[in-house]
Amino acid sequence: MNTREWLRTEATLSLERLLPRVLAELEAARHHDPTGYVRFEARLKREWPRLFELLLDLYGQQYDFFYHLEAILLSTARAWASRRPALRALDEAREAEPTWFQQQTMVGAVLYIDLFAGTLTGLRERLPYLKQLGITYLHLMPLFLAPEGKNDGGYAVSSYRTVQPELGTMEELAELADTFREQGISLVVDFVFNHTSDEHEWAQRARAGEARYEQFYFIFPDRTIPDQYDLTLREIFPTVRRGNFTWDEAMGRWIWTTFNSFQWDLNYANPEVFRVMGEELLFLANVGVEVLRLDAVAFVWKRLGTNCENQPEAHKIIQAYNALTRIACPALLFKSEAIVHPDEVVKYIDQGEAQLSYNPLLMALCWEALATREVRLLAHSLSTRWRIAEGCSWVNYLRGHDDIGWTFDDDDARALQIDPWGHRQFLNAFYTGDHPASFARGVPFQANPATGDARISGTLASLAGLEAAMQQRDLRLIDLAVRRILLLHSIILSAGGMPLIYLGDEVATLNNYDYLYDPAQADDSRWIHRVRFNWEEHARWRDPELPEGKIFHELQRLIALRKSQPALAGMHLEVFATGNAHLLGYVRRHKGSRLVIIANVSELPQQLEANLLRLHGSGYRFRDLVSGNDIEASGTLSVEAYQFFWLERL
Ligand code: GLC
């Protein structure tokens, strides 16, 4: 018998042994929903061999492996049993149409509840605004119980089952999820699973010396082991603390903290951690959210002598969690937040792992193209690095609550005669306004003097030049900034995958420097772009004569246009050479529909050989859906400053 056959047999035998336990556990639920149960059991049988193998790989050496296996299975079964009928109906609908999120009608947005609407109730009242924009996917930034004061914007979670009291309650979140779903908006929340806050009950019990909880984290009596790890680890927040370990005064020991000192890394080599965090995951699924954003996925497995990022076991953990969701709550999707090298980002994307993923490369290179006024690195990376696993989707964004890191591949840059290190230095100088050709008003984030590395904070509008232009009261510069902002959005709305708008960007929110006066924020420049929504300014957004109004109005129009174009569904993207260093060209095709997109990333008008449209658009006459103008594919075509065309063949 080969290993594969052996595994199959073992998996089957183990399920045969465990099924009676599951049946006993689900007695009542089965009675209530016999057809639902049949489906559950079918999914369990389908997923079991995969789950069994993954867990065996991860935890097979544990003497009590089968005990953990059973506990994980029972947790999953209980999660199905407590799933509401409406969510079970959703499970069925999504299973019948598993790539629903690839439709061109999908448009995402992300917000902080307190900054956008105060509370969950306040958010409900803003539903008309979200509908007006055309949002169908809404990521609520961390809303869970977190320490007062510093909590990394909520990414230090003290309880996954409690909403931060100022924002509302879990019941309200569940009701909101139902209402929004009925209105065509899928809710998304974070699953912050790499670490808990140091105020989480588990952390407190570890601190108090309870052996069971000490094993949830990485705790060391002295520096011997931390020093060995630190040799090969990156520093993610070097301005907070050097190295990756924090001395905990109360415990008198060192604790692994990849991010802030109050964020304790969980130890996934402990199967109990896998199970209890799996229970939190399934709990959130049952609240009614449809997507979990898997925070900091790259870091969840540690291995001495490596940088402890993107380890094979990190993938297995996520795949095993994916299997649990397929069994208990198949409507749920994962979105991977892997802000790492592009080669690694794509490895998390799979129907059996994370179906959605942020696209940090597109994000960084959009900004890179604006700074250089050239598309070569963007075009090269799009043509070689776009493809991901079938049935999955990029989430394309321009700004978020985090910084911008220059995450392109060094060899991609070298292939284009770009020196990667020098280029990153240039981009940092450009976006902090420290370059003569810069229009941007950004600030550095986590500048590391030891490595010369830095990332960039700033709102989209400030980085795109609106802040400087408004201060100079220069109408021409304001106009250019507005055009840049629309051009960027045109790219994420048309490139393939789901666009994600950081709310506030649609009304050109500028940097807010107040964070410098708040001790809980002053050392984290990302607060410059986490700005309270100023609803008083609403009138400005309605006035298309003002930059805010123009952006809001045009963006709304582009979103509606995207939704009307079947060619923009799916993920198919063909980048072509435009023969002009400043023009990006690509074709989007889906089920017989086709659009040709052209974008000028410079402030000077550019010429395009119109013949290229014949070649790539297979036609002679086109309508630009953005301006409504008709275009003939002959001679040269002029593309104005930051203009973009969405061309449909006539
Ligand atoms: C993710 C979040 C970021 C946070 C970090 C630690 O990268 O987006 O805001 O600081 O994880 O949780």
From TrEMBL:
SMART domains: Aamy
Single GO molecular function: amylosucrase activity
Domain of life: Bacteria
CDD domains per the UniProt record, alphabetical: AmyAc_Amylosucrase
GO biological process: carbohydrate metabolic process
Domain annotation Glycosyl hydrolase family 13 catalytic: ranges: 110-542
The protein's name: Amylosucrase
Organism, as annotated: Candidatus Chloroploca asiatica
